TrEMBL record:
Its main location: membrane. CDD domains: TM_PBP2. It comes from Albidiferax ferrireducens (strain ATCC BAA-621 / DSM 15236 / T118). Keywords: Cell membrane, Membrane, Transmembrane, Transmembrane helix, Transport. It comes from the Bacteria. It is a multi-pass membrane protein. It is found in: Cell membrane. The keyword S-adenosyl-L-methionine does not apply. The keyword Transport applies. The chain crosses the membrane at residues 12-37, 74-96, 108-128, 158-182, 203-228, 263-287. GO terms for biological process: transmembrane transport. GO terms for cellular component: plasma membrane. Gene3D superfamilies: MetI-like. This is Binding-protein-dependent transport systems inner membrane component.
Length: 298
C-alpha cells in the first residue's frame, strides 16, 4: 500500500516540531544528569577533574553530620507538610464544594498565596515570627507580657516554622486540585446517600475519598517533589539557622557547590535527591501502567 504524501509530510512536520523538545531532554536533562553522575565519582573541587574515586564522595556525604541532619529535617518537614496540606486542602475543597456565597472570591483568596514567590512568603513569615517585632511582640503589647512564640530562633522548633509558612502557601493548590475532583463526582451519589440515611462523614470516607484517588495521587507527587526541592523558604526565613538547625539537602548542595567549591560532593548530593524523586515517581507510574493495561484488556 502506497504511503500518502500528505500523511508523510504531516508526520515529518510533527517530528520536526518535536526535535527541540527531544534535544532539550537529551542535552539539558539527561546530559546534565550523566555529567553530574560523572563528577560525583571524581575528585573534583573548584573545577571538574577526571580523577575517578568511585563511590568515595557518597561515603563522605553520608559520613557528613550536616548532610545527615539535613535529611532528618527534610523527613520531618515532609511528613508534616504533606499531611497538613492534604488535610487543610481537602477541608477547604469540601467547604467550597458546598456552593457557598462568593465562591469565586474565596477560591481566589485561598489560591493566592501559591502565586507568591516562596522567597516573598519566607520574608513575610520571618517578620511575623521574629520575637522582637512579630506575633510575640504584638501579643505582649496587648497585655500578655509572658506570651512567648520564639520558634524561629529555637533549634528544636525552627523546622515547624518553615512547615507553617509552606503549608500556608501550598494548601490553596491542594484545595483547587481536590475541588476539581469533587466537582467531577456524580450528584446522584449524594442523593442516594441521603435516601439511605448514610452520615455525610461516612460518604466522604467510604465513597468520595476512594473516588478522589487519582487527584490525591497527583497532589501527593506535587507535594513530595516540593519537599525535596525545599530551598528558598529556608534561605529566606532562617538561612539554615540557628546554627545548622534548619539545614536541608538543597541548601547543603548549593553551599558546597558555590560556597565551599566542592562540586563533587555537591553532585553526589544532587544524585541522591534525584534518586529520591525517582523512587517517589516509580510506584505511581507502575500503578498507572497497570491501570491502563487493565483498561485496555476490557
Amino acid at each position: 500500500m502506497k504511503a500518502n504524501p500528505k500523511q508523510l509530510l504531516r508526520s515529518l512536520v510533527t517530528w520536526t516540531a518535536l526535535l527541540p523538545m527531544v534535544a532539550t531532554v537529551l542535552v539539558a536533562y539527561l546530559g546534565t544528569v550523566l555529567w553530574s553522575l560523572k563528577v560525583s565519582m571524581s575528585n573534583s573541587r573548584t573545577f571538574p577533574s577526571d580523577e575517578f574515586v568511585g563511590l568515595a564522595q557518597y561515603e563522605r556525604l553520608f559520613n557528613n553530620d550536616r548532610w545527615l541532619l539535613s535529611l532528618e529535617n527534610l523527613a520531618l518537614y515532609g511528613v508534616l507538610f504533606i499531611a497538613a496540606c492534604m488535610l487543610i486542602g481537602f477541608l477547604l475543597a469540601v467547604f467550597i464544594d458546598q456552593e457557598v456565597m462568593a465562591e469565586g472570591a474565596l477560591r481566589t483568596i485561598f489560591l493566592y498565596p501559591y502565586a507568591m514567590s516562596f522567597v516573598a512568603t519566607g520574608l513575610v513569615w520571618q517578620w511575623l515570627l521574629n520575637p522582637g517585632n512579630g506575633i510575640q511582640q504584638a501579643v505582649r503589647q496587648m497585655g500578655f507580657e509572658d506570651f512567648t512564640f520564639d520558634w524561629i530562633i529555637d533549634q528544636n522548633k525552627v523546622m515547624y516554622t518553615i512547615v507553617i509558612a509552606s503549608v500556608w502557601q501550598a494548601s490553596g493548590l491542594v484545595m483547587a486540585l481536590l475541588l476539581a475532583g469533587l466537582r467531577g463526582i456524580d450528584g446522584e451519589i449524594w442523593k442516594a446517600a441521603r435516601i439511605d440515611g448514610i452520615p455525610t462523614w461516612r460518604v466522604y470516607v467510604s465513597i468520595v475519598l476512594p473516588m478522589l484517588g487519582p487527584s490525591i495521587a497527583t497532589v501527593f507527587i506535587l507535594l513530595s517533589t516540593a519537599v525535596i526541592k525545599l530551598f528558598d523558604a529556608v534561605v529566606s526565613m532562617t538561612q539554615g539557622g540557628p546554627g545548622t538547625a534548619s539545614e536541608v539537602p538543597a541548601k547543603f548542595i548549593m553551599d558546597h557547590l558555590f560556597g565551599r567549591a566542592n562540586i563533587a560532593l555537591a553532585s553526589a548530593g544532587s544524585i541522591v535527591l534525584l534518586l529520591t524523586v525517582l523512587a517517589l515517581l516509580a510506584p505511581l507510574l507502575y500503578v498507572r501502567s497497570r491501570a491502563n493495561a487493565a483498561g485496555g484488556d476490557k
